[in-house]
């Protein structure tokens, strides 16, 4: 059985996810932990649950989602994966992070790249990679059909969507990603976003003021 643990880290209130199952294998997605207390919260959970970190994944590489990459990669000696189109976004973080007060940010280098149709496997779990650009040029999401779960990053929020005014963002592309990649999933799929509470595909199709497709 899949377990989804969320941590809310850094001043941007970013959602960091640890996914694990009965095998005790896990993956960490978008580690936003920055200060010592946040890092301890993450490592204590992993230690307390006796988890083995198999992979480090980024849905996209904006500063609030990558602050803990180097810490996780070094602490757990694990491989780190992103979409290749977001590597320039990742490399830019070290330039602008100090302007947000993150003077202790350390860069991590990806070990490989994920693209549409790839599978991320750990324990008894298999997630499919969805390419969903618009908020960021190399944004991806992770979908588990059996568990009806998608880790969506900053694409679709509860009654909102990701911003598109950052470099590489594009509103029309984002809406296309939502309609063609997320809204084609079953209505009862739970969306775990990069910020804020979870939602469902069906709820957003009916009520989201930016991208709803069903009249109520």
Automatic annotation (TrEMBL):
* Location of the Metallo-beta-lactamase domain: 13-195
Signal peptide from the UniProt entry: none
Record bears the keyword Metal-binding: yes
Cofactor or coenzyme needed: Zn(2+)
What Pfam families does UniProt report for this protein, alphabetically?
A: Lactamase_B (PF00753)
Q: InterPro entries of this UniProt entry?
A: MBL_Glyoxalase_II, Metallo-B-lactamas, RibonucZ/Hydroxyglut_hydro
Task: Print the keywords alphabetically.
Answer: Hydrolase, Metal-binding, Zinc
Keyword set includes Zinc? yes
Protein name per UniProt: MBL fold metallo-hydrolase
């Amino acid at each position: 059985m899949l377990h989804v643990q969320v941590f809310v880290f850094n001043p941007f209130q970013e959602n960091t996810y640890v996914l694990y199952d009965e095998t005790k294998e896990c993956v960490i997605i978008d580690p936003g932990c920055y200060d010592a207390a946040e890092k301890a919260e993450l490592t204590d959970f992993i230690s307390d649950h006796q988890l083995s970190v198999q992979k480090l994944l980024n849905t996209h590489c904006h500063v609030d989602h990558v602050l803990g990459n180097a810490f996780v990669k070094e602490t757990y000696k694990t491989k780190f994966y992103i979409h290749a189109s977001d590597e320039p976004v990742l490399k830019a973080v070290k330039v602008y992070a100090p302007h947000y007060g993150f003077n202790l940010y350390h860069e991590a280098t990806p070990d490989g790249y994920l693209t549409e149709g790839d599978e991320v496997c750990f324990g008894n779990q298999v997630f499919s990679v969805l390419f969903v650009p618009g908020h960021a040029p190399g944004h991806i999401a992770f979908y588990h059909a059996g568990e009806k779960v998608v880790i969506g990053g900053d694409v679709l929020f509860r009654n909102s969507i990701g911003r598109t005014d950052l470099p590489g963002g594009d509103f029309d592309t984002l809406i296309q990603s939502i309609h063609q990649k997320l809204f084609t999933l079953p209505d009862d799929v739970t969306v775990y976003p990069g910020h804020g509470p979870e939602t469902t595909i069906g709820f957003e199709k009916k009520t989201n003021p930016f991208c709803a497709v069903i009249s109520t």
